[in-house]
Amino acid sequence: MDELTPLSDATLSDLPTGVKVPTYDRAALTPGIVHIGLGNFHRAHQAWYLHRLMQDGCARDWAILGAGVRPSDAAQRERLLAQDCLTTLIELDPSGTSAEVTGSMIGFVPVEEDNAALIAQMADPAIRIVSLTVTEGGYYLDPATGGFDAAHPDIRHDAEHPDTPRTAFGAMIAALRLRRGRGTGPFTGLSCDNLQGNGAILKQVVTSLARLSDPNLAAWIEETCTFPNSMVDCIVPATGPDEIALVRALGIDDAAPVTHENFRQWVIEDDFCAGRPDWDRAGATFSDRVHDYEAMKIRILNGGHQVIANAGEILSIGTISGCMEHPLIAAFFARVQAEEIAPHVKPVADMTPEAYVDLVSRRFANPAVVDTTRRVAFDGSSRHSGFIVPTIRDALAAGTPTEGLALVEALWARMCDGTREDGSAIAPNDPHWESLTAAAKAARSDPDVWLAQRQIYGDLGDDAGFASAFDRWLRRIWMHGTASALADYAGAHASQPTAG
């Protein structure tokens, strides 16, 4: 292999021919956004839209400063600062890959236990948007009620020590306190996580936490700050040895490359109290119907991931595209979506639920996207409660079928036993793995135990019809295997292929 070119501002002109690079003067960029949670998704999605605007000569005063509140964020900071916060994005298209270096991020705030540097940066009046990707489970919601969890130890700490907060939300409040005192005005809080009503949830968490220590500040935040809802969509695998090998094969030494599918969508409410970039010029959509877009994506795509990932994990299928190649899983996915999920989703301006199911099926089946089953199955306690349970409730209220959805939950319960059908162990894959595994093992003889987890299911276990279907499916899976259950539901008669 030829010598690798280290990724940096100084070497952009030395990168291999065919790799797109920033054409704007990065030294002339000034920050306008602090983004908390600098993972792969943000760099492949929101940061890319801003980079595209900068390539067109726009938004030069909206550059991104990365930030984090977890100890692990410090390692990401070091990796990115070492390469001038540049990222190589590799698009995974079945017809071939392409690469682009993005430069819309220009710095990374020091990661500190008391978040002092982050607070100071967000208090700077140049910062007009604070955006977040902290995962669905990162918003301190009470799992039983869905409301703000004021009893969480981190929240109690921030309420008692508002000047030295542990959480991103406490840091936002501390910065807003400084801005109010200095008369520099509010900023917009922009959640980019897969939560329906993510802006409303972010507002609830910030104002509820502020109210615990400073009710007057909470009222000021509620009156002056805005928290637009948004829907984000792009499949972005985790970076591992294969992704590092891909970027090295291009001749680039990038310690934090990102791969992504050849599809992006971003729908945002146009509600920004301190201005915003013209993201729509780069393909984003500003709409007052974000909830409908959100519901379509969360129910069909995110919910669809949970439909197939648990079965794939049990059957030792390593990737999502591999799941879609399995005839029984593919047939299961198609029927559940058509009969039990899509009927409860509203169409949007340019897409029917049925057409979106077809689009998602093609995206999931893209063999170039090596999205691991394990990544998609991670944090099922948040994802099933957020992506599947609402559809179950809608179906029960409407009197429409829930057999397939009951099977989805039975497959998750089987997966949480911690073993695959080939006898191999499933490593812990949920923040609540220990309790889930205990419930899964108890449910093997008494399936009611699983649905009794009210922090996930609420009162769904009290619905006799749904509980009976779940009981029947879980017993069948344990007695006859996953393939038998899938074939029975999907009406498929194909024999189970060798999983790999």
Automatic annotation (TrEMBL):
- Keywords for this entry? Oxidoreductase
> Would you say which domain of life the source belongs to?
Bacteria
Q: Where is the Mannitol dehydrogenase C-terminal domain?
A: 290-477
Mention one GO molecular function. oxidoreductase activity, acting on the CH-OH group of donors, NAD or NADP as acceptor
The record's annotation in Pfam families points to: Mannitol_dh, Mannitol_dh_C
The record's section on InterPro entries has:
6-PGluconate_DH-like_C_sf, 6PGD_dom2, Mannitol_DH, Mannitol_DH/Oxidoreductase, Mannitol_DH_C, Mannitol_DH_N, NAD(P)-bd_dom_sf
Q: Does the keyword field hold Oxidoreductase?
A: yes
All copies of the Mannitol dehydrogenase N-terminal domain together span: 32-280
Q: What is this protein called?
A: Mannitol dehydrogenase family protein
